[in-house]
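Aim 2, interim progress: modelling of the manganese (II) ion-bound target.
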Amino acid sequence: MTFSHYDLHTHTTASDGVLSPAALFASALEHGIEILAVTDHDTIDGYSQLLSLQQSGEISDQIKLISGAELTCVLERQVLHIVALNIQMDNPGLIEHLSMLAALRLDRAERIAAKLVKKKLPNILSLVHEKAAGAQIGRPHFAKVLCDLKLVSSEAEAFKKYLGAGKVANVAVQWPTLEQVLEVIKQSGGVSVLAHPTKYKLTMSKLRRIIAEFKLLGGDAIEISYPGVNVQQQNILKFEIDKHQLSVSAGSDFHTPENKWTTLGRYPKVADDLPHVLTKCLADQVTLKRI
Ligand code: AMP
Ligand code: MN
Ligand code: MN
Ligand code: MN
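Predicted structure of the complex, ligand included:
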């Protein structure tokens, strides 16, 4: 099935994106997007703000909004990102889960700042809070402050030198398990998507085991189209999708207009013959416009 132009993986200033939800929406309109999921890291605030604006008529209803969040979790010490779509925002289990994640992120931010101080860098915690401005706080906020202070020349360098896995300001976090996250998504009426499967730097055999476990625990779909995925990787993912009877999803993982390698709504074309997560999301919607 072919859907209208959509993007099911995007970020705003509610987490580590640079556009406000309203600015993201305006850009989505310019890019001709008709179905948009805002999937900020560990928060639904981006979607929630847009929904209010749409309900009050301040933004157009030309774009169908889908609720979303990209939830951080672990499976056997591997950090995974699960895009939750079509979740009910008022679900108590979801609300509790998101506040737990906020607390984990605040605690992590303090520990990252302390590690940087140990490396003779200034204490940047308050600047990081200012940068995040109430957003779900993440390592990119640290990277941005380190850049602002000219302590690194780019965000990529901040990750390479300080914030990345195994680097000096890397701290362990007890993220919720994949099982817990899939349960929260299910309880809140949503569908779960394993985000950017080839971005975890796993061997293909390990990735296959993770996909099998994802299915076993009730996972619904796998992102198959996103910036950077190649045809060979997509073919492997398609094989797994077919084997486990999963659906497909696609999105740009948009964070900033400054990235030249990705744009809102841009990702490799998704084949029409695959079961699509949007079918589940829009099951109760009016007839879809086809292209
Ligand atoms: P967090 O969820 O706080 O651990 O931060 C993860 C986010 O950092 C990802 O979603 C990316 O947006 C960003 N990120 C991860 N690795 C890098 C990198 N090497 N350079 C720049 N940004 C990165
Ligand atoms: Mn991010
Ligand atoms: Mn991610
Ligand atoms: Mn993302």
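The mean pLDDT is 95. The CA atoms of residues 39 and 69 lie 4 Å apart.
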